[in-house]
């Protein structure tokens, strides 16, 4: 291994502190210089010759010339060769050999000088010429080292090599020769000054040599610095290669070692003297050390702090070369003080040159470099120093109301508008805890806050508050309420970030109190243009709540102000206020959920804002609050056993501020969501709490009974899932069940009413519905109706238990005696209490075709069909049946409710057949109702194609009225239709529904034997007369004439008519009666009608003709004026009848 030469490991990795095992330091070169005693009269190898040390001194002049000759070979490569004009050489030059022989010579010379020093020999003792030659040697070395500035800047950047001395690049060896000789010169001078007794002058010479060595290294560092962008300075070092770092380290150890022996200045004194020369206008050098020629530097302050940072890190190396990533024993308070003073000095310069007011062009980019470096020094390498923090604070407080201080990159780069209070506080904590690789994402102010937080986190102590008081005084003094009032959103955000950083790391209560007092009040906010600013202020105050919660502090002193603000905000209607309430609720949720026993006055946050927020917010917006209140209830119940005051106070607040609003929340209905669950569970919680502690419930005007009745029987509850879930939860709680049974006399009846309501208004099958069905089936009231085991089992197994229930009621009533029916009817009517009021509240125009809407109408139709005798009370105009039919099928035409009429069409037959079960003939009101029903629904149940009047369709719901009804009731219907609609209204025109009735009759007749013979018999008996009467009275072109002919044709072709003589005779008689009435007074129409009959029914014509002939004969006999005309027309018929 060559002696005295550095062995390069390439560029320095910032995180790799291990020294090369072949390096000078690890080969103990420094240790040998400082400590080891070499053997005397040893033989040394010099320029390939082995000589005693005395011979080297005797022939020193010759060897100096040899050294100079070799160095000149290297100097040829100081300039970058022009392409195609490489230095001429006859043979390949081994540049390392050149460098090695020079260094070996100097190394051996140094060793010999050190050896003779021990015996108090001097070079003068060897000979006068030797001392002169030795001075020549030093001059030669210094001349060569003085040419460092001639080396191109690119050499400092690209000369390093990972292969070390195996490289044959001339630039590499030229550059490293400077490093080699600088170290050898320094150590030779040290040994010389330590060898002879010219102490004062020699020490000054040594200081100058060390000064020059450090100046050269700073020169190299400056050349490197100018090539590095500010953003990369965190990852780059001032060392062009590992050899430069090693040289810095050895010079540092050498200088500090000599300082301890009082033989020269301390390392930092050398360094500071050089760095001061970068600021000639600020500091006049008083040092006796020489001035040096350093290149111009645009950012001298940044460079100096960057350099000091890296040189401070070298103090992590112990004397043996092991790095510990923390100050080693080499770093004393004196060294810390000296380096710190220099940084303070530089920061003051920086501030005076525009850093304070932002006048520097790239002030924030520069601060982004400076602050992380100072951060590491202040928090990891130096003792507490408030002055650094104060100086950095001077760079920001004047510019705090500027947006560029906000973070624009990284995970926290979202705008302050989008950040929640949790985000703001988490960013503060994350900033303090973050790792170095996240530094590039921070703004300059963010980096300052990180430094401030870390510094206070490490050095804040309640017992020793000196550091904190100094920082607090400097920061607090810069703010006032008037100043913050004028701040923009950006300024407020920066202020908040600053104070929350202080609060997280120091006296939380004091800092938060100061911050809140300085910030403008959100209650007095009225200017819409500042909405975002006041939103941010509110977020900061909520972050204070989170911080209090994290620290487990009591909210007693601050809760009232938050509740007061929330009450005010909840009264505003704008979007910003709504957002502010959402943030408040989110923070409150965190606070309440993390509370252990509500012993920190959490109850004080519940106030009037809850009522207004739940009232005015959309159902899908209140889920967070209602779920939070539910969990609070659960936690209070868990705390009951421990009897804590906090849970008692919280329950009182819930009764005071939540219970009444929960009663009203259930009026909302949004079937598309699960909004109903939380309010319902809250209702259950309040009911159970009222059962447990009725006195507290009564205090706030509530009771378990009133709550139960409200949530099961109130008609304002539109979402029946609320009643279903509530009732299920109450019935599953034994304590509540027992309490309510004692307090409510008709508890079972109320349960049945609620069950009926749940089944009619909800068609879905779920576990709650199944539970309620099973519970109801065990009640004695239900068992009295389901009086057989079969009925009970069918009821329990039915997927439509409500339909089955109504059918069983109808079946049960038929088995009762007349005197039992009245009591039975009254009981059953109680189960359908207010049916007319709540049954239709879910149906509207938009959902009329849904499954649920039809299910509701189907249930209502079943009630009317099966239970009409139960609902109907004679001589009571507002009996349940009439009221229900009016509501579901005969709604007022103004306002129009077409959706109800649309659904009623589908249960029309159930309504009509339900009325059949009553004594219609004895009650004119029922007859009127039937007429109104047909008048309203005939146009809807019989549809005619616009393009073809003969194409029509009769709805099944109308057909079933005639298919399933008893003959007498069918006859009554047909009689009503004929009497009310097959009539002449005026101007010889029929009723507007006559045409539809004729189509209905055609449909019944043409159906053949689908309907019974009684239907055709009733048509002939009660309808035909009106039909023929209208025929005689309408004008010639009226459509009824053709409909009448079609009617006769359809009847004549009907199978029942052909097979039944009685029907034929009945029709003959009715036709003749109509003709007999009009043949004399309206002979033209009469004979036209008979003529039409002749084409349809010859048998009927043969029945009519003799009677017409007789009338004509009587007219002639009585010599009536129209006798001749009648006789003429009679002759016309004769040919048709024969």
Structural features:
1138 residues, mainly alpha, 7 domains, two-stranded antiparallel ribbon, MMS22L_C, 64% helix, DNA damage, two-stranded antiparallel sheet
Instruction: Please indicate the percent range of residues in DSSP E strands (runs of 2 or more).
Output: under 5%
Mean of residue pLDDT? 87
**Alpha-beta content class:** mainly alpha
Compute the separation of the termini in Å.
Answer: 151 Å
Domain tally: 7
The description of the largest β-sheet is:
2 strands, antiparallel
Domain MMS22-like C-terminal: 772-1134
Family: Belongs to the MMS22 family. MMS22L subfamily.
Main location: nucleus
Domain Protein MMS22-like N-terminal: 138-584
What does this protein look like?
By secondary structure, this protein is mostly helical. It has seven domains: 1-81 and 89-228 and 238-264, no CATH class; 266-360 and 368-380, no CATH class; 396-553, no CATH class; 557-657, no CATH class; 745-918, no CATH class; 931-1061; 1079-1138, no CATH class. It is 64% helix and 2% strand. It has 55 helices and six strands. The strands form three sheets. The chain has a two-stranded antiparallel sheet with strand order 1-2. It has a two-stranded antiparallel sheet with strand order 3-4. Helix 16 (421-433) crosses helix 17. The radius of gyration is 55 Å and the shape is elongated. It starts with 28 loop residues before the first helix and ends with a helix. The model has no long low-confidence stretch (mean pLDDT 87). InterPro entries: MMS22-like, MMS22L_C, MMS22L_N. This is Protein MMS22-like. It comes from Trichomalopsis sarcophagae. Keywords: Chromatin regulator, Chromosome, DNA damage, DNA repair, Nucleus.
